[in-house]
Amino acid sequence: MSDASVRQALRSDARLVVIEAPAGCGKTHQGADYVGEIANGSRERVLILTHTHAACSVFAERTRGIGSHVEIRTIDSLVAQVASAYSSGIGVTADPMIWVRQRSDGYALLAGKVARLLQKYPMIGQATARRYPVIVCDEHQDSSADQHAIAMSLHGNGARMRVFADPLQKIFREANPYSWKDLLESADRFEELDYPHRWSRGCPELGKWTLKAREALKNGGKVDLRTAPSSVTVVQATNIAQKNFDYRLGTVDRRPVDVFEKRQSSLLVLTRYNETARALRSFFDRRILLWEGYTRSALEILVQQLAKVTGPAEVAAAIMTFMDAVAIGFSPSEFGRRLQDEIADGCSKRTRGKPAMIQELARLLLEAPDHKGAAGMLARLHELIQTEPHFRGVKVDCHREFWDAVRLGQFDDPADGLADLAHRRAYARPQPPSRAISTVHKAKGLECGSVIVMPCDARSFPDTADGRCLLYVALSRAKNELMLVVSADKPSPLLIF
């Protein structure tokens, strides 16, 4: 039985144990149980390395009460910690996150620097391994070659390593991936979880079918929807939207989707692209919130732009770019051009109605042409959205990101504010609302009572390695019910229906 053999392998004397862990098969339970036993028994310090803050949240919940012998962090934060201690030696700023944010691939570059540092100076890895004699690597399939090299350096310098990974959940593609085959060959023990625990209190038949779907995708086959249990609903529909990545259905096609959605109290609506996720907010009449995950890409761009501004007009332009990413309706034609005109004129003309309200926003930027003025303008904009008919067409989709931008005004430096907010977010470990729209990437590690995957078309889930992994991750989130909205004209080639 896999549960028993995995449990035994984790507790064995083997220095490197690799567990292939399909979604929902008890990986977190096994890992947390093992960590608790080590921390409370031998009192050895355990480091749990994950790849997402969502996974950190799950492990934090499962290991609550264990105490100070367990540390949970993302591998990026470990990389940053090492880089901070040796910043001058590897050529980065004293705060490596400033260096990272200044580069589009900053995290990857920093991991490369740290990997080479550990290779050149083994004593650094030895010190880290002494501090953390037991290391649990979660979702290790998402490691880059450099991240993998860092973990293996700690293992090579004395740490006992327990690696949980699932090659079919590798949805964050790296330019330089490590070799799964080489990892298995170097392992002292290898086991595979195979019991669908996630569905034990939901729909067991859905769990069994999901594992069969995984096996088909893993072996180059297709998911057979004809053999799906009654808890799986398949809807064939045609997207009639004209705009790229937009999504709309005709009245007849959308009726079963609406019926399914409205009766769910626990729901994730999953799609591949951020743009489509935003479009689905409108599709569901904005009654389902957008799960923004832990990243704030639009806020990062705003901070970068604000660091370069030389006047209020550039602050206004940065705000327009930000609002385009997190909301709808605050367009150049409706607001942006008038805002820039008011700034250019110094808000000197007397106005009434909507122009007067836009002038009020412009005046805030004239008084403080920096991140604090931007934060003040956004806060006032929110008030106008709530109270003024002229602003009712403005709808904020990314609420948390919007309010993080407002909170930037509390800091003297916007980059420091961005870092502080990210730090708070990491430790607050926010969870999605009970009903949420999300990309498949941001939903990784989550589970939900019911899930709608839409659209299941050839662009979202092509017959590629990425497409197979994305489809499997999407299918495996639902515990009770699953709906697949399959494109009638361009269905995913990974489905048989």
Ends distance? 33 Å
Proportion of beta-strand residues: 5-15%
Fraction of residues in helix = 40-55%
Low-confidence stretches: none
Question: What does the largest sheet look like?
Answer: 6 strands, parallel
User: Major sheet: order of its strands?
Assistant: 3-2-4-5-1-6
**Mean pLDDT across residues:** 93
Give the radius of gyration.
Answer: 25 Å
Dominant shape: globular
Give the helix/strand class: alpha/beta
How many helical elements? 22
Instruction: Please report the total strand number as a whole number.
Output: 16
Task: Output the keywords.
497 residues; alpha/beta; 6-stranded parallel beta sheet; globular
Characterize the structure shown.
The protein has 22 helices and 16 strands. The chain has 497 residues and is an alpha/beta fold. Strands 3-2-4-5-1-6 form a 6-stranded parallel β-sheet, sandwiched between helices. Strands 8-15-14-9-13-10 form a 6-stranded parallel β-sheet, with helices on both faces. A two-stranded parallel sheet has the order 7-16. Helix 9 (145-156) links the parallel strand 4 and strand 5 (160-165). It is globular. The model has no long low-confidence stretch (mean pLDDT 93).
